[in-house]
Amino acid sequence: MLNFMLYNPVKVYFGAGEVKQLNKECAEYKRILLVYGGGSIKHNGVYDQVLAQLTGKEVFEFSGIEPNPEYETLLKAVKVVKEQNIDIILAVGGGSVIDGVKFIAAAACYHNDDYYEILQTRGAKITKAIPFGVVQTLPATGSEMNSGSVISRAELSSKSAFGSEHTFPVFAVLDPEYTYSLPKRQLINGVIDPFIHVTEQFLTTNLNTPIQDGFSITVLKTLISVADQLINKESKDYVLRSNWMWAATNALNGYIGVGINHDWATHNIGHSLTANYGLDHAQSLAIIAPRLWEHQLENKLDKLAMFATQVWGCDPNMDRRGLAYLAIEKTEKFFRSVGAKTRLSEYDIKVDPSQVANTVFAYPLGEHANITRDDAIRIITLSI
Amino acid sequence: MLNFMLYNPVKVYFGAGEVKQLNKECAEYKRILLVYGGGSIKHNGVYDQVLAQLTGKEVFEFSGIEPNPEYETLLKAVKVVKEQNIDIILAVGGGSVIDGVKFIAAAACYHNDDYYEILQTRGAKITKAIPFGVVQTLPATGSEMNSGSVISRAELSSKSAFGSEHTFPVFAVLDPEYTYSLPKRQLINGVIDPFIHVTEQFLTTNLNTPIQDGFSITVLKTLISVADQLINKESKDYVLRSNWMWAATNALNGYIGVGINHDWATHNIGHSLTANYGLDHAQSLAIIAPRLWEHQLENKLDKLAMFATQVWGCDPNMDRRGLAYLAIEKTEKFFRSVGAKTRLSEYDIKVDPSQVANTVFAYPLGEHANITRDDAIRIITLSI
Fold first, then answer.
1. CB contact under 8 A, B211 and A225
2. Contacting residues of B for A3, CB less than 8 Å apart
3. Own/partner pairs for A44-53, CB < 8 Å, 24+ apart?
4. How far apart are CA A260 and CA B244, in angstroms?
5. Are residues B122 and B89 in the same domain?
6. Distance between CA atoms of A190 and A139, rounded to whole angstroms?
């Protein structure tokens, strides 16, 4: 096991009706900025339930955070926070809103006005942020219980990640009933995204870490076990939605990934696909991951074999290479069974692998830092 | 899944040499109280390594915290904290030292001088505590990464648990190499104690919670996988010690037990056995748990069967009752294989079940609140 530091101070309130905790959690604050996306929370009742907990407060609103939150939009919110002396921000939405609020909260306290520096330095210079809480409506990114964020900047075709120990939510309300109104596309993304969060950590070097491996396998098996009912039947079973929601949070709250190598190459290439062609984040992951695993098969052999036997139930007597290919095949089949496309050619876009590779944040990629720009072009080409 | 709140702000530094983090973590403090037990840290080098990180600080010491930390002893430490205006306490040791420091830290800030009220109210009235950090030398209790504590009071033959969101360690240093000098008795306790921490949470009502169940199963399997090498061979393999240490922490840091019912009846009866006859905490658990599971077999049928198939590899085609008995049999056999006794009569004590039952904290016990004083007497009698 590698040495590690683990720190996650987010207070999670999980379950139906837990929005009631907002009242207590916001007690010490007076000027609240409610940040949300396209307005779906006004149709599904979440907006009203949140406001009902904030009586007596000065509540300001900033709506219109896009999927893949856009730098230029967030700058406008930073201005509101500063002008209105906001003392807490509430992110009501999914990963894009939460990621956006992390940037807004940090930028509003930044030591200069060059907020793009936050992204260029991956958050290293953040020393403070406005406190913020989360009311989650879409399980997927794990952003509700971590300090990471990914921000897009359209004019540069870039998508950049940052994080800081100052950008953890103070609290997060996770109510599985809030997921009942999600459209199928979001349900698919909500299974694929956490699935790949796990594999970016689990499918790396085998360092004999049974706690981390077992936790990862548990999250993967849980996602697989709920996916058909959740996506194909759009089941509103509360237990099913709860297990999905809690699996998605555990995929990226830090616990499964301590003391091991991390990959994140699929995410890096995927971010660039999204920035260039507008694919949903999870759509890009479902396409890149299987081809990247094939490309890195020898490096990931142990864990791909473990993936095959312990997640997909394959015969442990098979040879490891056979198991590795079988794991990839079964995963791709699983993705397709829940409506996720696994080839770029299935979308109405014309992909230029060199262009995608050029806007990847930085090379080399992967847990072995061995994926070059040429490798990325090869992986993208294989993904067409 | 039941509604839950999860909050764990402990900053964990894990790995060889991580004692170096003390310097940074104590930077803002000036007057430090080092609290430890019988002095083994002076023989194994930990004491010197800790002090080396605290140069330039005013360091005070309080040693002699007993196994099962004693109320009267802790009062003396509270006096030191107040008289010397201590601004951070460092607990260097195992669960007893850490539990003791939690009490000291809370009592030193308590609103009145009736510190026993902290135990009588289970910590409900704690509003503040002196900040404290941990350097762990004995993996077992999980106290290094939670807010709970168990304190003994000899004159009342009592052992009482308390906890508060103010009694989380600020940080905890977990260095697997610090466990190399532990005697075999502590190695045994260090496997049994976390094992039962898991079963107190996992072997309860089946609420269809695959994340929690999978995490619990992972911790149990990891403990089983390391036990023979660790205890019978006293292996000093770093990877083995790391997996043991991290398993023990995860057994009781809150994550595996969210949204499910908890039992803790084995602990309650075990505490009373320790208070009356001086058995080690883990020794009491290894004796009570198997008999309590038999007594509660019908209520725990689902989970005992899951325990049998997923931890012990039993044939899932067997009937659930047969599986449940098999799980208990295999667990008891495992305990004995690593030197843990499972009958009271194996110790040189004469047990009075009524006396033990009388000093249990409060009835009814168990996740169904169905274990009465008479049931406890029955379980203790069966354990002889």
1. no
2. 13-18
3. A44/A137, A44/A178, A44/A180, A44/A181, A46/A19, A46/A92, A46/A135, A46/A137, A46/A178, A47/A92, A49/A19, A50/A19, A50/A22, A50/A90, A50/A92, A50/A135, A53/A19, A53/A20, A53/A22, A53/A23, A53/A26
4. 16
5. yes
6. 6
Residues of chain B in Cβ contact (below 8 Å) with chain A: 1-18, 21, 207-211, 213-215, 217-219, 221-222, 225, 239, 242-243, 246-247, 250, 255, 258-259
What pLDDT was estimated at residue B157? 85
- pLDDT tens track for B180-216: 999 999 999 999 999 999 999 999 999 999 999 999 9
pLDDT digits (tens, 9 = 90+) for B285-320: 999 999 999 999 999 999 999 999 999 999 999 999
Across the 384 residues of chain A, what is the mean pLDDT of every consecutive 10-residue run?
Answer: 98 98 97 96 96 97 96 98 98 97 98 96 97 97 97 90 97 98 97 98 98 98 98 98 98 98 97 94 97 98 98 97 98 98 97 95 95 98 97
Q: Which of B2, B218, B223 has the highest number of chain A CBs within 10 A, making it the mutation to test binding with A? A: B218
Structure tokens at B346: 């194996």
Structural domain total, chain A: 2
Chain A residues whose C-beta is within 8 A of a chain B C-beta are: 1-18, 21, 207-211, 213-215, 217-219, 221-222, 225, 239, 242-243, 246-247, 250, 255, 258-259
Please check whether residues B25 and B99 belong to one and the same domain: yes
Q: What is the pTM of this model?
A: 0.97
Question: How many secondary structure helices (H) and strands (E) does chain A include?
Answer: 15, 8
- Chain A residues with beta carbon closer than 8 angstroms to that of B235: none
ipTM above 0.95?
yes
A167 lies in some domain = yes
Q: Which of B3, B7, B243 minimises the CB distance to A16?
A: B3
- Tally C-beta pairs within 8 A across A and B: 130
Do residue B298 and residue B218 come from a single domain? yes
Q: Which of A11, A247, A259 sits opposite B5 (nearest CB)?
A: A11
Domain that holds residue A105: 11-178
